[in-house]
Amino acid sequence: MKTFFSTLAMSLLAVSLLSAQVMEKQARKYAKTITDDDLTRHITLLASDSLEGRETGKKGQKMAAEYIKNHFESLGLTAPVDGSYFQKFNLYQTYRGESEIVVNDKTIKNLDQMVYWANTPFERNEIEIVFVNKATEEDLENVEAEGKFLAFQAEGQFTPTLKVIEELGAKGALVFAEDSSRMNMVLRYGRYYATHGSLSREEPSKKGLASVVIYKELAEEFFGKPLSELKIGDNASAELFAEINTETIETENVLGYLEGTEKPDELIVLTAHYDHVGVQDGKVYNGADDDASGTTAVLEIAEAFVKAKKAGHGPKRSILFMPVTGEEKGLLGSAHYAENPVFPLENTVTNLNIDMIGRVDSAHMDDREFVYLIGSNRISTELHEISEAMNENYTKLELDYTYNAEDHPDRIYYRSDHWNFAKNGVPIIFYFNGTHPDYHQHTDTVEKIEFDLLKKRTDLVFYTAWEIANRENRLTIDEVEEETEE
What we know:
Distance between the termini: 62 Å
């Protein structure tokens, strides 16, 4: 009997090893369908001048969406949004128009010596201003804020202070910039938003805190004495006017669905953002690396899985290939999907997100075969181990976890589309090559893409997706403390 069971165990082990060998052979076969020629074809189109930098809601973004949709359609992927490949939704583009403050018959114009910082319009009216020093808890303790503008000296990031002031019932805030350097930066931001506006998924309220940022030297214009001599409770008055214009813009995520053969209800989601920052000062910001490279990878991985399924080797789990819109405007497309998922998030096994994988950063000039991985161990240690094993077996890249450190000041974990899955408990990996001098510049162009690295990094994502899609059990979720965005 013992001999029988030993023989049975050996037989089962042999079958298991043979199955693993077959799966590896198939994975290598379909990874070879991801070619330099196809990668070049996709990225050259997506990062061409004709797409005008793919700014969210603009003509070029629509052209890119149509190109991606046509690719998915040609592959035979299912259109999962009520028969459409597009998950459409509205965004609200807000522009700050004419604004000014009149004090003692002197007119201070917006984007000259002040910036109207809010997205709340303000009808021309007189405002009552009360000085509250640095607006600390102690400074605000005995101040009557209701209906008034509270003036304070900024120290670093002042947005949290604005929230406190609004909660006290103030109508607005007058922020004295801490120095000329900081004010000049605020002016640059103000000029950018005056030209490009800001996008949000919620229609902006016409109510809310009005806020103005101004050079601290102008305190004397308001209060009759310099900032250094002001005391809490000092009063002033002025006339304020601010114009805000909002328009509605439609945009879309692009979804292609491949149904699994054995566990169709379980889903792997592959994402990359296909938008970029458009045209600035007459120059097209092509965004070849950011993120035509990641979008190209998703298109090619989709094709590899489709070819496998057509040959009878389809994945056990379903896969959703989803290039998303609006990342550059605040992760808007992935946020919309997370709040309006086409497939339940609780059935989503993992999100593999690809954002910039075609270049080398300054830290790796001497060891270029690398990729940064972020988040692989944050929710599922098992996902991290699978990722490591796939790299060891197939691609042998240096896996750099620098940006995965929880105390890393750049906080990359919260800054791409995977975050909208991670904060909902979905295990994620973010693939990234780091920034370079062409990041968010018009010089991020196709000729600077290093296609051998783009291919190898795309292969790593493919092999990882292949393994997760075909393994018997879904990923184990670790018991971790819930993380919140700061």
